[in-house]
């Protein structure tokens, strides 16, 4: 049974189908939350709240779009809401960016996109993997903010909160990170970034 069928059955009240969706996404949601929050307990709360929101809003899901994009969007918003409620800022995100990994959420799964043909999906995965490698090679202080801005699509304010730095510093690091990538990889980066992100 594929994901689309599981979603359809879940919308019809099939608890078994929804439980299978939970199994498919719980670890990936946890890893995404950990990149933002760096707290195991909070990440577990995020996963639970995300699936609750998904379950309560299944009737609002547009079946013409990808379920993965929808659920990660909900999960990211739950993380950001929790981040804003914190009294103290979290630690910086310093986990490496890796694509197509069983242990970490891939860029392909995080990047919002429309429905694609099988051939286009293969190309997109290759592009996402290459972009992950480019981001991973950035200096540490640029890597985190570039990943948060262009992969997790976090606002400048939320990035500042996540890293305990002023918004102006966030903007400066993103700008310098982009310049670093453009100077080092030139046209190659331009092609990938135009296809995947709004870099330029």
Automatic annotation (TrEMBL):
<feature type="domain" description="RNA polymerase sigma-70 region 2">
    <location>
        <begin position="21"/>
        <end position="87"/>
    </location>
</feature>
<dbReference type="InterPro" id="IPR014284">
    <property type="entry name" value="RNA_pol_sigma-70_dom"/>
</dbReference>
<comment type="similarity">
    <text>Belongs to the sigma-70 factor family. ECF subfamily.</text>
</comment>
<feature type="domain" description="RNA polymerase sigma factor 70 region 4 type 2">
    <location>
        <begin position="133"/>
        <end position="179"/>
    </location>
</feature>
<dbReference type="InterPro" id="IPR036388">
    <property type="entry name" value="WH-like_DNA-bd_sf"/>
</dbReference>
<dbReference type="InterPro" id="IPR013249">
    <property type="entry name" value="RNA_pol_sigma70_r4_t2"/>
</dbReference>
<keyword id="KW-0805">Transcription regulation</keyword>
<keyword id="KW-0731">Sigma factor</keyword>
<dbReference type="GO" id="GO:0006352">
    <property type="term" value="P:DNA-templated transcription initiation"/>
</dbReference>
<dbReference type="InterPro" id="IPR013325">
    <property type="entry name" value="RNA_pol_sigma_r2"/>
</dbReference>
<dbReference type="GO" id="GO:0016987">
    <property type="term" value="F:sigma factor activity"/>
</dbReference>
<dbReference type="GO" id="GO:0003677">
    <property type="term" value="F:DNA binding"/>
</dbReference>
<dbReference type="InterPro" id="IPR039425">
    <property type="entry name" value="RNA_pol_sigma-70-like"/>
</dbReference>
<protein>
    <submittedName>
        <fullName>Sigma-70 family RNA polymerase sigma factor</fullName>
    </submittedName>
</protein>
<dbReference type="Pfam" id="PF04542">
    <property type="entry name" value="Sigma70_r2"/>
</dbReference>
<dbReference type="InterPro" id="IPR007627">
    <property type="entry name" value="RNA_pol_sigma70_r2"/>
</dbReference>
<dbReference type="Pfam" id="PF08281">
    <property type="entry name" value="Sigma70_r4_2"/>
</dbReference>
<keyword id="KW-0804">Transcription</keyword>
<dbReference type="InterPro" id="IPR013324">
    <property type="entry name" value="RNA_pol_sigma_r3/r4-like"/>
</dbReference>
């Amino acid at each position: 049974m594929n994901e689309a069928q599981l979603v359809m059955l879940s919308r019809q009240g099939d608890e078994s189908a929804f439980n299978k969706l939970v199994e498919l996404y719980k670890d990936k949601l946890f890893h995404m939350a950990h990149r933002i929050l760096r707290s195991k307990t909070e990440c577990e709360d995020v996963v639970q709240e995300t699936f609750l929101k998904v379950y309560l809003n299944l009737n609002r899901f547009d079946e013409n779009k990808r379920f993965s994009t929808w659920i990660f969007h909900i999960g990211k918003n739950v993380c950001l809401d929790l981040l804003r409620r914190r009294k103290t800022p979290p630690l910086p995100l310093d986990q490496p960016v890796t694509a197509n990994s069983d242990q970490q959420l891939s860029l392909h799964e995080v990047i919002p996109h429309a429905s694609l043909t099988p051939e286009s999906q293969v190309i997109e995965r290759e592009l996402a993997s290459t972009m992950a490698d480019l981001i991973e090679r950035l200096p540490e202080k640029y890597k985190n903010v570039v990943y948060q801005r262009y992969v997790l699509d976090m606002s400048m304010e939320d990035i500042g909160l996540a890293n305990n730095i002023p918004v102006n510093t966030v903007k400066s690091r993103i700008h310098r990170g982009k310049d670093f990538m453009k100077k080092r990889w030139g046209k190659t980066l331009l092609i990938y970034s135009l296809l995947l992100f709004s870099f330029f």
